[in-house]
Amino acid sequence: xxxxxxxxxxxxxIASPSTQEQAASxxxxxxxxxxxxxxxxxxxxxxxxxxxxRGEREVVLLGHIDTVPGHIPVRQEGDLLYGRGSVDAKGPxxxxxxxVARLPKSDTCRLVVVGAVEEEAASSKGxxxxxGKYAPECFIIGEPSQWxxxxxxxxxxxxIDYTLCHDMSHSAGQLASGPEIAVExxxxxxxxxxxxxxxxxxxxxxxxxxxxxxxxxxxxxEVVTQRIGLRLPLAYDVTALQTYLxxxxxxxxxxxxxYEVAHKSDKRNPLVKxxxxxxxxxxxxxxxxxxxxxxxxxxxxxHWRCPVVAYGxxxxxxxxxxxxxxxxxxxxRAIDILTRVLSLLIEASPATA
Length: 353
Prior knowledge:
Radius of gyration: 22 Å
Number of domains: 2
Helix content: 25-40%
CATH architecture of the largest domain: 3-Layer(aba) Sandwich
């Protein structure tokens, strides 16, 4: 089996739901050592880190090694490799490790590959850990974009935990039940978003999702909890939204968490130009994407303030699904593209990189 395909298959075969990435991180470190990385280690956050080459200049390639829960038996059917994480995002991460290992080592520019932990848990523990440890001139996030596209931006995020404690009443009475009150809060939020979204493009809308709702009762009081997820557009006034929602919550309490600012990169920089050139050289028609989800790009871009894109093989429509799979040929083609991109970045002078 091709060494690069074997890396992908083995990495996908190691279960690594968020907070349980230790075995996958250890495997990836061993794989990077076997490929001749200058350094390969598990850092204090649990990230798998590999360093290729030396020099003051630095390019970071960060993909997440954790997955959402759910076991998908690893198998290959023709060109398609099935397994949890094959697309989101072990495919892109294995692409990073393999592309870097194809390059001659530079004495002026070092490449840092990070398999980050807990991206799917919304804590982004791995990405937050590396903020102060590296100072790249540009960086690449490992997320599926398909081989001939790069992702320029992701929406922001806000999570809302709603809790209502409500006195029990007879179902034949006129008082609203706790679940009815909670549902009305949800409906109020969706109406608010619908008004805001009128006439806006998809990347500019406020998106709502009801992630869970539970009720419990001791016979005297009922407790209703719900978790709501919001995807935020660029430059959105989160403070005003929080004030509005607290006013609508009535007797319920709201807890806000997981806040990330939306980010969209500019197209006019050497990193994007390198991808456009590499994709065209390999017969592709380059495309730009923006995504309605959130990634570690949102965490790192406000701090590193340098060019960034997300790139990787795979169809993001398969993220988190029971049918997650990746094309092996696309994976290998993405390695070709990324190898060329990195060679262009290394060859560039510091003034133009």
